[in-house]
Amino acid sequence: MESVPYDLGPGRRASLPGFRVLVVGPGPRADSWAYVTAGCASPPEDDGHGLEFVMTAHVRDRRFVELLAMIAFYHRTGARLGLAHSVPIGEPWTPGSACDHLLVTLPYLHGPGLEHCPLPGGHARILWTLPVTAAEIAYRREHGHEALEQRLDEAAIVPTDPFRASVV
């Protein structure tokens, strides 16, 4: 595991002091890379609780650190993100990918043990930022979050495959 500091630059630095992304390489339980925010939940939000985010990818790439920094900054300075929210990336998740949004969902890929992380004075809930397509987001708006998750599950998507087909 490596802790990668990410400087958001002047004017943004104060919103996430000490922010970094933990980069975890493939191991015996997973063949993918995991990127986890650290510092997004600090200071804790309500009643000692905060949110951190995890992204899983097929390769090690600074791009994923930058995407999580974007998510963390948006969460801390804009509308607070939560379960079933989505964020447009503004470009493909990786070059050539149809996935151009991130869906905030439970960390299914990592198991329920990852969702809650104790912190001094509270805890962080860790939610997964799953890359999805604009069509999948439109489907979710019309049919609901659970309906989209069911479609993703039935299609048995490989969530780290940047070139996966849309499930709708």
Shape: globular
Strand-residue fraction? 25-35%
Return the string of H and E elements: EEEEHEEEEHH
Give the biggest beta sheet. 8 strands, mixed
Structural category: alpha+beta
- Cα separation of the termini: 36 Å
Structural features, described:
There is one protein chain. With 168 residues, this protein is α+β, with helices and mostly antiparallel strands. The chain has a domain at 2-81 and 102-130. It is built from 3 helices and 8 strands. Helix 2 (134-143) crosses helix 3 (145-154). The radius of gyration is 15 Å and the shape is globular.
What features would you highlight for this structure?
single chain; 168 residues; alpha+beta; 3 helices; 8 strands
Map the helices and strands.
Elements: E1 2-5, E2 20-24, E3 33-38, E4 49-57, H1 62-77, E5 86-88, E6 99-105, E7 116-119, E8 122-133, H2 134-143, H3 145-154
Parallel strand pairs: 4-8
Antiparallel strand pairs: 1-2, 2-3, 3-4, 5-6, 6-8, 7-8
Summarize the entry for a quick read.
The chain has 168 residues and is α+β, with helices and mostly antiparallel strands.
